[in-house]
Write a structure and sequence with these properties.
The complex is a heterodimer of chains A (about 325) and B (about 240). Chain A is an alpha/beta fold and about 325 residues long. Chain A folds into two domains: about 1-175, HUPs (Rossmann fold, 3-Layer(aba) Sandwich), CATH 3.40.50.620; about 190-315, Rossmann fold (3-Layer(aba) Sandwich). Chain A has helices at about 15-30, 70-85, 95-105, 210-220, 230-235, 265-270, 300-315, and strands spanning about 1-5, 10, 10-15, 35-40, 55-65, 90, 110-120, 125-130, 135-140, 145-150, 165-170, 180-185, 195-200, 225, 255-260, 275-280, 295. In chain A, a hairpin with a 2-residue loop joins strand 2 and strand 3 (about 10-15). In chain A, helix 2 packs across helix 3 (about 95-105) and helix 4 (about 210-220) runs parallel beside helix 7 (about 300-315). Chain A starts with a strand and ends with a helix. The model of chain A has no long low-confidence stretch (mean pLDDT about 95). With about 240 residues, chain B is of the alpha/beta class. In chain B, about 25% of the residues lie in helices and about 30% in strands. Chain B is built from six helices and 15 strands. Chain B has helices at about 35-55, 70-75, 90-100, 125-130, 185-190, 235-240; strands at about 1-5, 10, 20, 25, 35, 55-60, 80-85, 110-115, 135-145, 150-155, 160-165, 170-175, 195-200, 210-215, 225. Chain B has a nine-stranded mixed sheet with strand order 11-10-9-12-8-1-6-7-13, sandwiched between helices. Chain B has a two-stranded antiparallel ribbon with strand order 2-5. In chain B, strands 3-4 form a two-stranded antiparallel sheet. Classes of the chains: A alpha/beta (about 325), B alpha/beta (about 240). At the A-B interface, helix 2, helix 3, strand 7, strand 8 and strand 9 of A face helix 4, strand 9, strand 10, strand 11 and strand 14 of B. Strand 12 (about 180-185) of chain A pairs antiparallel with strand 11 of chain B.
């Protein structure tokens, strides 16, 4: 059986968990098995999980699962999987998934593959490596395989499955070794790692005071903002916006790069984006080679034009 | 405070990646290897902690003899001693098992490493080690403070940050912003030559995954250029051709 850990926020199933469920349902179909979701915590709304691909749902609650902890969640997942004959555990490559998957893999004595972007067959996967500069086909052996799927790699499909819910009551208190003190959510902004559209800018903007138009364009488009490494190194923008090989790796549907030349390290972090638009004064900027659309010109003339047109469309 | 820092030797960030032997092996010809940037942050943070509170920083690397220059650089930055497990790790599970066996009988208050290596991008070793060694785990952290046998760290979460407390011993993985990496000075480089670098043989040679083959991303088609005068056309194209807006 294929198990998929689903995450939720304010009860709602996260988009990347829906993607993981699609992966799980496809894998179940390919291996002649069924797909079960594991939902953790009292407030998760499990009612739609059948539509997202779950034949069955294990809704796990109990002592030690009131808040996230790597140990508590990994124990909850591993227990459900081993008690119900799981062969596969699919987890999103979210921060939560990245903490849970390695621990669950050890508990289950499983093979572990992370950064997975596609399933090749039941025993092998395709994953990113060299920070998105390459891909590798990796074969996995053993009775249990744990796989983390990169967000935005899998198109969500809709299903018409039962998604019957079995409540599992447990106590994982002894596995909880960390205590959450406080959570600081970025408010009113789309988190970069979850954004489908991203507007990013680099040194070509000349100074932090010029980011107003970038933020406005992102706002009108419903996009997140990002930046290049030099810009975050100079503290023009927060480190959390730095995309690239040593920053955040993203693969949105649209990436608009303004005043970024496209150094190899930057490209590594964004080259999986589905559509790339580059705006740069230098026609020789390497980024144009990786772009779908390009405009050679001054950001201070071009961005306001884009903004005006985007506002027009939004208003109409 | 004894701290173990996992160090991986990775291709320099400017490396143009290519493969040999029918796309089954990474082409290391002409490639400069460096300390994995996230591991470098873990090392610097470990040094900051031991400088303030006393103690010793040991680095550990799983690799063949070719990784020793990278390990010497970590010693030059300030680590006191080094352990090399003499094998090429097949995956994160293999690397973690090698590390666990190599440090059996030793005790560390903290194990720090990078949040992932920039070559295989597994991000697995910290989590696996924490489970194998029954230590607490705080993954992808931008701040670490150690006081009274407790560690408080700020970790990245989806859409924000979380402050987390754990008792020692604890495994943490470093994210950008944790600290500024240090550059070794001449004195450090001279001293590094004399510092102990112990080589141990691996006790396991097993892994459940195998990297069968590699490929480079598909080349993009040629870029569609839009005249700067008609820049707004881009928005229309994204709407009509790509249906993104």
């Amino acid at each position: 059986m294929v198990f998929v850990l689903v995450e939720s926020e304010e009860g709602k199933i996260k988009k990347y968990s829906q993607e993981a469920l699609t992966y799980g349902a496809d894998l179940a179909a390919a291996t002649g098995s069924s797909c079960a979701a594991i939902a953790i915590g009292e407030d998760t709304d499990t009612s739609d999980l059948g539509n997202y691909g779950a034949d069955k749902v294990y809704h796990v609650t109990g002592s030690g699962l009131e808040a996230f902890s790597p140990g508590g969640y990994a124990t909850a997942v591993a227990d459900v999987v081993s008690n119900n004959g799981g062969n596969y555990v699919i987890v999103s490559g979210s921060y939560t998934g990245k903490s849970v998957a390695p621990k669950a893999a050890v508990k289950l004595n499983a093979a572990l593959a992370t950064g997975v972007v596609a399933m090749t067959d039941g025993n092998s996967i395709r994953k990113t490596c060299f920070s998105n500069k390459a891909f590798s086909k990796v074969s996995m052996s053993g009775d249990v395989k744990v796989i983390t799927v990169v967000p935005n790699s899998y198109e969500i499909k809709s299903y018409d499955k039962a998604g019957s819910v079995e409540s599992v009551s447990t106590d994982v208190g002894s596995s909880v070794k960390t205590k959450s003190i406080s959570i600081d959510k970025v408010k009113g902004k789309i988190p970069l790692t979850e954004a489908e559209l991203v507007v990013s800018a680099g040194r070509g903007l000349k100074g932090p005071e010029n980011w107003g138009m970038i933020e406005e364009l992102a706002d009108v488009l419903g996009a997140a903002t990002a930046c290049s490494k030099p810009v975050s190194d100079m503290d023009w923008r927060p480190h959390s916006e730095h995309v690239g090989q040593t920053g955040i790796t993203i693969k949105p549907n649209l990436y608009i790069a303004v005043g970024i030349s496209g150094a190899i390290q930057h490209l590594a972090g964004v080259s999986s984006s589905k559509v790339i638009c580059v705006i740069n004064t230098d026609p020789e900027a390497p980024f144009f080679k990786a772009a779908d659309y390009g405009i050679v010109g001054d950001a201070f003339e071009i961005v306001p034009k884009l903004l005006a047109r985007a506002k027009e469309l939004k208003a109409s | 405070m004894n701290i173990l820092v996992g160090i991986s030797a990775v291709p320099d960030t400017t490396t143009k990646i290519s493969f040999v032997e029918n796309n089954t092996k990474f082409n290391t010809e002409g490639v400069q290897f460096i300390i994995n940037p996230y591991d470098e942050l873990a090392l610097t943070k470990a040094l900051e902690i031991t400088e303030a509170q006393g103690g010793e920083v040991t680095i550990i690397t799983v690799g063949d003899a070719s990784v020793e220059p990278v390990m010497r650089k970590a010693l030059a930055i300030g680590a006191q001693k080094a352990i090399r497990v003499n094998t090429v790790a097949k995956d994160g599970m293999h690397a973690a098992q090698c590390i666990k066996d190599a440090i059996a009988g030793q005790s560390y208050d903290l194990i720090l490493t990078g949040r992932e290596s920039i070559d295989y991008n597994g991000g697995q070793v910290a989590g696996i080690l924490s489970e194998m060694l029954d230590m607490s785990l705080i993954n992808v952290v931008t701040s670490i403070e150690v006081n009274d046998g407790k560690v408080t760290a700020v970790r990245d979460i989806d859409g924000g940050r979380e402050t987390v407390e754990a008792s020692l011993p604890c495994v943490l993985s470093a994210q950008k912003e944790l600290c500024e990496p240090r550059i070794p000075n001449m004195r450090g480089i001279m001293q590094a030559r004399m510092k102990p670098l112990e080589v141990v043989e691996p006790s396991v040679d097993y892994s459940a995954t195998n990297y069968d083959s590699y490929e480079l991303p598909a080349e993009k088609g040629s870029v569609k250029l839009i005249e700067a005068n008609n820049a707004e056309e881009l928005i229309d194209l994204l709407r009509t051709e790509k249906k993104l807006i």
